[in-house]
Specification:
The protein has three helices and four strands. By secondary structure, the protein is α/β, with parallel strands linked by helices. Helix 2 links the parallel strand 2 and strand 3. The chain is globular.
């Protein structure tokens, strides 16, 4: 399983989350980051309730250690 973190939950970030959801057998979105809490709520609605939310991308990277960082 590839652990992905998405940084930036605007239109492109949400599009990427939909793509990762379609690949859910091989990819797991473990965390999302955005300064706007409304955008992270939308992201979690797509990626799943167990996705962690961060307002700071650097903290996300340090704490979660994702295999892939998708900067949108």
């Amino acid at each position: 399983m590839i652990k992905v973190a998405v940084i930036g939950c605007g239109a492109m970030g949400l599009m990427h989350l939909h793509c990762y959801k379609a690949l859910s057998e091989k990819v797991q979105v473990i965390a999302v980051a955005d300064a706007d809490p409304n955008k992270t709520k939308s992201a979690v609605a797509i990626s799943g309730a167990d996705t962690k939310i961060y307002s700071d991308a650097n903290v996300l990277i340090e704490q979660e250690k994702p295999d892939v960082i998708d900067i949108c």
